[in-house]
Amino acid sequence: MTRVTTFQVTGQTSSAVETLIELGFVFGAPVATTTTLLDTFDGRLHRAGMQLRMLESDRVDLELCGLDTPTAHVAVGESPRGSDDLPPGPFRARVAAVIDVRALSPRVRVRSLRTCGALRNADGKVVSLAELHDALHILDQPVRLDAEPTVEIHEVPGYEKQARPILEALSRHSFEGFETDTLTLSAAATGVDLDGFSASATVPLDPGMAAVDGFRLVLANLAATIDANWLGTLEQTDSEFLHDLRIAMRRTRTILAAAKNVLPEEVLDHTRAEFAWLAGRTGEPRDLDVYLLEWSRYTDPLGSSTASDLEPVRVLLERHREEVHTELENSLCSDRASAVMVEWRTWLAEPLGTEEIPNRGNRPLGQVVAHRVSRAHAVLLERGRLIGPDTPPEQVHDLRKDAKKLRYLLECFGSLLPERPRKHYVKRLKALQDNLGEHQDAAVHVEMLQDIAHRFGVAGTSSNTTNFEMMVALGRLTERLDQQRLAARAEFTERFADYDTPKTQHALDAVIEGMNG
Amino acid sequence: MKVLATYSIKGGVGKTTTAVNLAHEAAAAGSRVLLWDLDPQGAATFFVRVKPSVKGGAERLVTDARSLVANIRATDDPAVHIVPADFSLRHLDLELDSTKHPTRRLASLLEPVANRYDVAVLDCAPGITLTSESVFAAADALIVPTIPTTLSQRTLEQLTDFLAAEVNPPMVLPFASMVDRRKRLQREVTEHLMRDIPGFLPTAIPNASVIELMGVERAPVALYAPTSAAASAFKQLWADIAGRIWT
Question: Are B51 and A68 an interchain contact pair (Cβ–Cβ within 8 Å)?
């Protein structure tokens, strides 16, 4: 990123500009400009060392700054909602590689009278740039928030030395300089964390703390994640909001299940039932999100002709997706959902009376978590060993859920666990989970396609020829996915055998010993 | 990073004006561009108002892997950087010849900056030399300005014949350069080239005084004559090239 130094020139804008003019800067006309920092909800661009700025005046320009690389720029018609709205080419590819399916939204917006100036050498080459932001105010605040006017000095790569006397001259005026830009200063002034929301499952925990306190801290963190992703799910800002909401709910259910005799029974029973209901609303919308996001990955291998024959299926899935998202929206806006979250947040925030705490709640957290993790591992082994070639798919799916619950326990209590042994063990568990996931995803999608084939078979379409070609294509896609399911199932025995070994047990023992030690 | 080289065996066909204008158009379309002036005349360097100076001369540029980065300068377009040329590059062939793998040398010098730029445009001196061979090994595509005359067509054939014998040759993307639409013969030859030469790009760059003005303005045409036919032609030429290299 080009080095930028920003001076706050409170009440002395003209003095700063005069200094720059004396040094040889030539300024253009001021332009009323809205400058916006765009990023994802979880700050992916910022975390990747990138900055996407949008400048709106009589035109709209995007600038993409990165570490040690030139600032790319491109003119656009309007603010992009995601990478697909960017013009095709390297600019879009760079943004897409970082943000993936996430939406872009304003992290901070400022309005200013922006005046650009340049210092040129004898050849007329720009050797330093200045940007004056006068009448600066930060937008999207409850009340108009005026900010100090700023002068940014931008170093020009290859001409860094020329910036030094300029910085020194401005410093002599006692202007306060910051090694950042106006937008970042504005974000800091309004408390915007450019790292974005972090959906980390774990929180700082101590193995010696009371189990009840540790469980409540983990559950409060998950409740915060649910809250943070609620609005984005409702507004369908991007598909990751629902994904993160759903994962946080599933983790909550896993922790609640593990909290028997740690948290009060009546709270557990009620909350588990309510989260089971709420999480149940999210399943089908998420399945359809995934299916449509992965659509071309499924259909491209079948060839372009088959893929185009399947277009009516994609349209139907899209319509169905809209329906189930509307149902989800109704559920999330219902009094019941609202009550679940209000009651849950209230209970988590209020202190717990000692008489309410069950016997295990006062035990050391490390001891309780160690027991839960060991038990979850034992259940996984026990159920996995029962699976043979003729076991119904539902039982394989149940095993997948067991593996997930174990993984969630490890993630949510992650801060208690020693890092290296945990990674070593999770690598073994993940290999098994990947296989179970492939099986389940294919099974769900086959079922969905069979349902669609049935619907089309019953309803028909306007053209019999189209209907025939589509049904053939649908059959090919279903067959392909079923082959994937069968391949995953055939591989299961080997994968489970790899997991069910003394090595895995040793790896888990190291995790548990590290936690207690 | 895609490496393009404006190249022709013939001189005076518009290689440098093409390199500078394509660098500008690539940047306007969102790319980060490194323009590398390999011609000791340093005309591309002059056009972007950068001092013609290579630290340590051609010798260090070729032998020191860090030298390319040390020589990079920003142009007035924040998305376009340049490695300037100076007169020491007249010895570039000799310096390359003293390295272990001379024909791979330019490619290996570009490797450290491959993630910093989306496009590198190498502006080459005319002729087929050791430097050209190193350019062929580094480039994904050669952008070949071709004046619509019989002689230019012949040199284009010489180039394609030469590359046919190479392993992994770059894509050859010729285009009609300095076209005088008032001359019937030029119009006819241009049509023939576009129709009959494989890969020939459909956009012709006119022989326009507004392009000659680059020497006075020291800027890409689009900056001082944005509505000119030449500016539109360079924009379209970049769109043609982008369509070929990113498919």
Answer: no
Report the distance separating Cα A149 and Cα A480, nearest Å: 62
**pTM score:** 0.89
Q: Rounded CA gap, B203 and B177, in Å? A: 9
d(CA A181, CA A184): 6
Report the DSSP beta bridge partners of residue A38: A52, A106
CB B79 to CB A158 under 8 A?
no
Cβ neighbours of A369 (radius 10 Å)? 27
Q: How far does the CA of residue A126 sit from the closest CA of chain B (Å)?
A: 6
**Which residues lie closer than 8 Å to A47 by C-beta, 6 or more apart?**
A195, A196
| Residue A304 pLDDT level (bands cut at 50, 70, 90) | confident
What is the enclosing helix (H) or strand (E) of A153?
strand A150-155
Residue A161 forms contact with B (CB below 8 Å): no
Q: Distance between CA A49 and CA A166 in Å, rounded?
A: 27
The residues with which A64 forms a beta bridge, in sequence order, are A52, A72
Q: How far apart are CA A413 and CA A516, in angstroms?
A: 13
Antiparallel, parallel or unpaired: β A4-8 and B73-74: unpaired
Cβ B74–A92 below 8 Å, yes or no? no
User: Count of alpha carbons within 13 Å of A160, Cβ hemisphere only?
Assistant: 7
Banded model confidence at residue A247, pLDDT cuts 50, 70, 90: very high
Residue A138, CA distances (Å) to A13, A23, A107, B218 in order: 18, 30, 11, 39
Which residues of chain B does A123 touch, with a Cβ-Cβ cutoff of 8 Å?
49-51, 218
Calculate ∠ Cα B155-B161-B167, nearest 5°: 130
Give the one of A68, A69, A89 whose C-beta lies nearest to B29's C-beta.
A89
Contact call for A158 and B242, based on CB within 8 A: no
Q: Which residues of chain A neighbour B27 with C-beta distances below 8 Å?
A: 72-73
pLDDT band, residue A195 (cuts 50/70/90): very high
Q: Is A152 on the interface with B (CB under 8 A)?
A: no
Mean pLDDT over B125-142 rounds to 95
Q: Give the pLDDT confidence score for residue A299 in this predicted structure.
A: 86
The helix (run of H) or strand (run of E) holding residue A458 is: helix A419-459
Q: Among partner residues B31, B48, B49, which is closest to A89 by beta-carbon distance?
A: B31
Closest Cα in chain A, distance from residue B97 (Å): 29
* Tokens standing for residue A266: 């009546």
Cβ A321 vs Cβ A289: under 8 Å = yes
With an 8 Å Cβ cutoff, the interface of chain B facing chain A consists of 27-33, 48-51, 72-74, 76, 78-81, 115-119, 218, 242, 246
Long-range contacts of B93-102 (CB under 8 A, 24+ apart): B93/B129, B93/B130, B93/B131, B95/B58, B95/B59, B95/B61, B95/B62, B95/B63, B96/B62, B96/B130, B96/B131, B96/B134, B97/B130, B98/B62, B98/B63, B99/B62, B99/B63, B102/B130, B102/B133, B102/B134
Whether A36 and A177 have beta carbons less than 8 Å apart is answered as no
What are the tens digits of pLDDT across the range A259-278?
Answer: 999 999 999 999 999 999 99
Q: Is the pLDDT of residue B115 over 90?
A: yes
Nearest CB among A72, A75, A126 relative to B31 is that of A72
